[in-house]
Write a structure and sequence with these properties.
Elements (H helix, E strand, L loop, with lengths): L1 H9 L5 H40 L1 E6 L22 H9 L6 E13 L7 E7 L17 E5 L11 E5 H7 L7 H4 L3 E4 L2 E10 L8 E5 H8 L7 E6 L5 H9 L4 E5 L5 H39 L1 H9 L4 H38 L7 H28 L2 H7 L1
Parallel strand pairs: 3-8, 5-7
Antiparallel strand pairs: 1-9, 1-10, 2-3, 2-9, 4-7, 5-8, 6-7
Helix pairs in contact: 1-10, 2-8, 2-10, 2-11, 8-11, 9-12, 10-11
């Protein structure tokens, strides 16, 4: 048995050039296969999370406002229809308030800089810990930190800011977002210095051209009084959305906007990515299976006389099976090791390209291991079946 296993371990390298080429190709196929499967899983998880989150998110705008509504809305502070902290209090007092997971008030201020190519930006005041919802973003909570950190409870009274990737590049001169690039970088808003503590991205230039600061720092800097631009209400479950919406609509100074329609583009894009990744994974699996089956088929045909001789001197089918399995496992195992390097090198690149969390982690390693085992099993089928049926006399005649 040991001799059969050793022969199987040596066989892939009887032709060194072919062995290296096969292992290299298999490493590329397995690595890409694992990446495509993880991209498929990540996109489906993102769609599911988006559906659940968006279906329970309600946006309140000043009555008659369009889009962002502009800073300060359409009614001055003090009028009956003013969209302000009184509106927030009304939202918190509705009968179904026990169903509200959280209510976040936001204040916006347009920032225009004629010296820059993309002159328009938005300064957004929000409570630290609230979602970074960038104006114009399709998925309202898809702004993710790519350098530094987001606003936290300790920042409630601090002059700190989280900026979009486009804003960081065009206005702060930060080309590649990183904690080191942030350093002690500051920006000035309405004459007040703010330390930049993080950079986010929405994978969209318009959404990446904003500045998020704590709402109290915003009020101290821009002095909007008690005026608000938007209020976001998060309901604890889909079942409670309709009664909460009905109660919010009873507030005269607000327009109530639910957001499932707003994410249709993002859902379509992610759905297409999921389907494309799944098809790519199927194609790559087929390529890998054909590759290893063809190589071991060729190897078996080349060694028909050897197989016949082994059987003639008493080698059992069991020994031949062990030899073929060892050969298939060796080729696939080396391909899997190479796939680890391929996946480690490409995971971050693919993650940035598709905007999904595709990391070289335990899941990736498990996928690569599973791919290697699958290819080893597939590759051993032909030589095992062929060797078991082959008689010594037939092998000599074919040779």
């Amino acid at each position: 048995m040991t001799g059969a296993m050793l022969r199987g371990l040596r066989n892939p390298f009887r032709s060194a050039t072919r062995g290296v080429v096969v292992v290299s190709l298999l490493a590329l196929v397995i690595g890409l296969l694992a990446l495509m499967i993880q991209a498929t899983l990540a996109s489906r998880e993102r769609i599911a999370a988006m559906d659940q989150r968006v279906r329970t998110l309600i946006e309140l705008r000043e009555a008659g406002a369009f889009g962002t509504g502009g800073f300060g809305g359409d009614h001055p502070v003090g009028e009956a229809l003013g969209f302000n902290l009184d509106t927030l209090a009304k939202a918190l007092r509705i009968p179904h308030a026990r169903h509200l997971a959280r209510v976040d008030e936001y204040v916006y201020h347009p920032d225009v800089d004629a010296s820059r190519r993309n002159a328009y930006a938005m300064v957004i005041g929000l409570h630290p810990g609230a979602a970074l919802r960038a104006i114009g973003e399709v998925d309202y909570e898809n702004a993710r930190i790519i350098a530094g950190r987001s606003l936290g409870p300790a920042d409630a009274q601090a002059r700190v800011a989280v900026v979009g990737r486009l804003y960081a590049r065009q206005r702060l001169g930060i080309g590649e977002p990183s904690a080191a690039a942030l350093g002690d970088r500051e920006l000035v808003l309405n004459g007040q210095p703010f330390q930049v503590i993080g950079i986010y991205t929405t994978q969209n230039d318009f959404g990446d051209n904003h500045v998020f600061i704590p709402i109290e720092a915003f009020r101290a800097t821009y002095r909007p009084g008690d005026k608000l631009s938007k209020i976001f209400v998060t309901v604890d479950s889909v079942a409670h959305v309709e009664p909460v919406v009905a109660d919010l609509k009873a507030i005269p100074e607000v327009d109530v906007v639910t957001t499932p329609e707003a994410v249709s583009t993002a859902r379509t894009t992610l759905g297409s990515l999921s389907v494309a990744s799944a098809y790519a994974a199927i194609v790559l699996f087929a390529i890998g299976a054909v590759l290893i089956v063809f190589v071991l088929m060729l190897s078996t045909r080349e060694r028909l006389r050897e197989i016949g001789t082994l059987k003639a001197i008493g080698a059992s089918n069991r020994e031949l099976v062990i030899q073929f399995l060892a050969e298939a496992v060796t080729v696939s195992g080396l391909g899997g090791l190479g796939a680890l390097a391929v996946a480690a090198a490409l995971a971050r690149v693919l993650s940035r390209a598709v905007g999904l969390p595709i990391a070289f982690d335990t899941t990736m390693i498990v996928l690569i291991l599973a791919g290697s085992i699958a290819f080893a099993a597939l590759g051993s089928l032909y030589p095992v079946a062929k060797g078991a049926r082959l008689s010594p006399l037939e092998a000599i005649r074919r040779e």
